[in-house]
Amino acid sequence: xxxxxxxxxxxxxxxxxxxxxxxxxxxxxxxxxxxxxxxxxxxxxxxxxxxxxxxxxxxxxxxxxxxxxxxxxxxxxxxxxxxxxxxxxxxxxxxxxxxxxxxxxxxxxxxxxxxxxxxxxxxxxxxxxxxxxxxxxxxxxxxxxxxxxxxxxxxxxxxxxxxxxxxxxxxxxxxxxxxxxxxxxxxxxxxxxxxxxxxxxxxxxxxxxxxxxxxxxxxxxxxxxxxxxxxx
Length: 232
Prior knowledge:
Blueprint: E1 2-10, E2 20-29, H1 33-46, H2 65-77, E3 82-89, H3 100-113, E4 121-127, H4 131-148, E5 158-164, H5 170-186, H6 194-206, E6 221-225
Parallel strand pairs: 1-4, 3-6, 4-5
Antiparallel strand pairs: 1-2, 2-3
Helix pairs in contact: 2-6, 3-4, 5-6
């Protein structure tokens, strides 16, 4: 099988307004990408948004809550869609041992190695955050992950790992939405708000409080909480 993986980051900079950092990804079979993209565009049209409307966590408002809940509902109803997220507290990183770029690679490794199997092939797309550093980071991450699955050609299993603009992909926007909700919830922000109502709806459909690490076999909404005890 051939999979596409779409990755997003929240509060990924060393200095930001929160100690909570979230890496998240949505993955699905490659041959389902066109169908899912079409379905998400249909949901946008249903709510009066244009095809080019970029939905993302930061854009949630009271007037758009129903749209975002429909997107969340679609994620849970579509058996081809899966999410994995890593929640980390930046204050627990071993900065004496690793610089922040190295920590970034390690966390991405924990995020993606759970998904990647030497039995399949993958395209991995990461939301562009920095044009200057993004290309360098993506190349290094590609090498690290490929070595882990003994693909020393760097192309047999992970066919490509590249940065893209979230405007280009509704599935990447979905990854942004789910990662943003996870980050919002873990920053203990108000739930009596538009964003809070989306978080509560997500919890309801996930049948989980979302505050604990998932069982390894959980494929739909898999969450890993970095405890500070691992080598990061």
